[in-house]
Design goal:
Subcellular location: Nucleus
Largest sheet: 8 strands, parallel
Radius of gyration: 27 Å
Bound molecules: zinc ion
CATH topology of the largest domain: Arginase, Chain A
Catalytic activity: N(6)-acetyl-L-lysyl-[histone] + H2O = L-lysyl-[histone] + acetate
Shape: elongated
CATH class of the largest domain: Alpha Beta
Protein name: histone deacetylase
GO biological process, one term: regulation of developmental process
Helix content: 25-40%
Number of helices: 19
CATH architecture of the largest domain: 3-Layer(aba) Sandwich
Keywords: Chromatin regulator, Hydrolase, Metal-binding, Nucleus, Repressor, Transcription, Transcription regulation, Zinc
Number of domains: 2
Length: 656
């Protein structure tokens, strides 16, 4: 199916802002050779287009046709050999060699539709750029694939065939009549834009800015290219800015801090004639490759902050983004911002990671010789926040309890790194997508088994519990959770009381700050009645909750497997050796409901003795934490607010 021509007839675009959109179903033709599952698949652009049309957003935009790029424009950034490769790779005569050729490159696949898709993707970004530069449009969003920013001068790489953004950038600079002399490229894809960086390395007309996961060179694309000391060379020195994250999980607050303290001050100085965004959405919350957590609202803030430059002339070109929902919602939020320039409310509740400030300072120091504004001291107010965070984390790392959990701010990802995905070709040419997830084979088995996870603590509040499943941060929490690999919400929720004692102990946690947290005495006591909120989840998700409750990250094997599930009905509780440093490593069996076992996680009998003797402190919960429990009980319709407060109060004060 081809996309019908110009649909702007009859739908008047906004008087104030003309926002262009380009999408063409022919860009879905590029795929893995036999349609094997791959994160960079045709559904990515379809999901964006469907979202824009179903929400009626496209009607407010100017829709223009995709167009294949001409070779002479590609030649400004790619070698002739590279152009010939992409031009011919989908031809009949290449059919037998195609997979072998792809295997020569890093994370590349080809099929009979690749050439056409690649020419359309580059051509569409170029058309968008031309229309915005000419003033026919205020801004534009090019919904294209394959993406481009990893593609280098003479080789395709990382799902990218032609470097779409670089081709459009050179086109604008070379068409003198357009009057475009300075271009800012903002690459907010979660991966470093290695290809684009190299193409403008010595060019002061192009300010290339990339913020990406780097982890000291271990994140895709691995190596030093994405380091903050890579600032350009010759005339281009200072015109290449890399902001390399030290860890995953970065979200709105981290990105906004980088905008406010690096990108925006530099953009003001540079004063670009036009801005092109390498708009990958794989740093979006829930992305399986990115492991970061920008919300759609966060993306719209980042975009809005750029709209005050270059008279609002912005071209957004899609790069990565592999969670279809997140991708579509983020893209839609950006198009709406381009259309309306809505006022934004920035949340002051969440703070950047301490590592974010470290990175910001390092980047500012590296570039201050070129951009004197970066030599200014960071505002006092922020430095205070920095200090607070540093103190906060350092007090955690010097945990008084040798059995306390580690600070979890540098959690390893449970997601698949891009570098681990590749197409391997076997002898008869049949390609398979292989991933490095064989060590996680346990997941599919345990995903078929359901259990009740029973919570007596903050997880009684559903919005808080969902952070363990879907990731994120609920009210009162000091840091976000990364969520489970399977983000499906619980299929059922129910309440129950159990004959066990609820109490509060330990003095502080990474998630809640100072104050005690809830424990359930694993011992049955018929005098006691503790409210439990039961969530029906899979055994795979239960393991991910266990991991997060115990501030652990290694997911190579399940901690609570099928054998444990078989024996717990008789053993009643199982202390998990592999998690023994965590506070909640004892899984307790609380009976059955609808024939499924009810499991909770708490401290061990030995720890209860420690609490009783005073070796481990008993400590009342802080207000924010207690409020979360009260909220859970009230929203779950178990108790009135007064009753819930009294219930917590009693558990916190009654001697153990
Ligand atoms: Zn990416």
């Amino acid at each position: 199916m081809e996309f019908p021509p110009d649909q702007s007839n009859g739908t008047e675009p906004s008087e104030r802002r003309r926002v262009g959109l380009v999408y063409d179903e022919r860009m879905c033709k590029h795929s893995t050779p036999k349609g094997e599952i791959h994160p960079e698949n045709p559904d990515r652009i379809r999901s964006i287009w469907n979202k824009l049309t179903s929400a009626g957003i496209h009607q407010r935009c100017v829709i223009f046709d995709a167009k294949e790029v001409e070779d002479k424009y590609i030649a400004a950034v790619h070698t002739n050999n590279h152009i010939n490769l992409i031009k011919t790779i989908s031809s009949e005569k290449m059919a037998s060699k195609r997979n072998r050729v792809a295997a020569r490159y890093n994370s590349i696949h080809f099929n009979e539709g690749s050439s056409e898709s690649a020419y359309l993707a580059a051509g569409s970004v170029l058309e968008a750029a031309k229309k915005v530069a000419k003033g026919e449009l205020n801004s534009a969003f090019a919904i294209v694939r394959p993406p481009g920013h990893h593609a280098e001068e003479s080789e395709p790489m990382g799902f990218c065939l032609f470097n779409n953004v670089a081709i459009a950038t050179c086109f604008l600079l070379n068409q003198k009549e357009l009057g475009i002399n300075k271009i800012l490229i903002v690459d907010w894809d979660v991966h470093h834009g290695n290809g684009t960086q190299k193409m403008f390395w010595k060019d002061s007309r192009v300010l290339f800015f990339s913020v990406h996961r780097h982890e000291y060179g271990s994140f895709y694309p691995t190596g030093d290219d994405g380091s903050h000391i890579m600032i350009g060379e010759g005339a281009g020195a200072g015109y290449n800015i890399n902001v390399p994250w030290e860890n995953g999980q970065c979200g709105d607050a981290d990105y906004i801090a980088v905008w406010d303290h690096i990108l925006i001050p530099v953009a003001r100085e540079f004063n670009p004639d036009i801005i092109i965004i390498s708009a990958g959405f794989d740093a979006a919350i829930g992305d399986p490759l990115g492991g970061c957590r920008i919300t759609p609202h966060g993306y719209s803030i980042l975009l809005k902050k750029l709209m005050k430059f270059s008279g609002g002339k912005i071209i957004m070109a899609l790069e990565g983004g592999y969670n279809l929902n997140s991708l579509a919602n983020s893209a839609a939020a950006c198009v709406e911002m381009l259309l309306e320039d809505k006022p934004i409310a920035e949340s002051v509740e969440v703070y950047p990671f301490e590592s974010t400030w470290r990175v910001i300072k390092a980047v500012r120091e590296e570039l201050s010789a070129f951009w004197p504004i970066l030599a200014d001291k960071l505002p006092e107010e922020l430095t205070t926040k920095v200090t607070l965070q540093l103190q906060y984390y350092s007090s955690q790392s010097e945990d008084e309890y040798d059995d306390g959990p580690n600070s979890g701010d540098l959690e390893e990802d449970v997601t698949i790194p891009l570098s681990k995905l590749n197409l391997s070709e076997d002898v008869d040419g049949a390609d398979k997508v292989t991933t490095a997830t064989s060590s996680q084979a346990w997941r599919s088995e345990l995903s078929k088994i359901h259990v009740w996870y029973a919570s007596f603590g903050s997880n009684m509040s559903e919005s808080r519990f969902l952070c363990y499943i879907q990731g994120g941060q609920a009210e009162g929490m000091k840091r976000p959770c990364r969520g489970s690999v399977d983000k499906t919400k619980p299929t059922e929720v129910m309440w129950k009381t159990v004959p066990h004692r609820l109490f509060f102990g330990r003095e502080s946690t990474v998630t809640w700050g100072p104050g005690g947290v809830a424990f359930l005495n694993p011992e049955i006591n018929n005098q006691e009645k503790t409210f439990m909120c039961l969530y029906r989840i899979t055994l795979e998700q239960f393991n991910d909750v266990l991991l997060q409750e115990n501030v652990r990250t290694d997911t190579s094997s399940p901690f609570f497997d099928l054998n444990a599930l078989d024996s717990i009905e008789y053993e009643k509780n199982i202390s998990l050796e592999a998690l023994k440093d965590g506070w909640y490593h004892n899984v307790v069996y609380l009976g059955k409901e609808n024939d499924l076992p009810i499991l909770t996680m708490t401290c061990t009998h030995a720890h209860v003795e420690g609490f009783k003797s005073g070796k481990i402190p008993i400590c009342a919960p802080a207000k924010g934490y207690a409020d979360t429990l009260v909220r859970g009980l009230v929203q779950g319709k178990q108790l009135s607010e007064d009753e819930a407060v009294a219930y917590i109060q009693e558990a916190a004060t009654k001697p153990l």
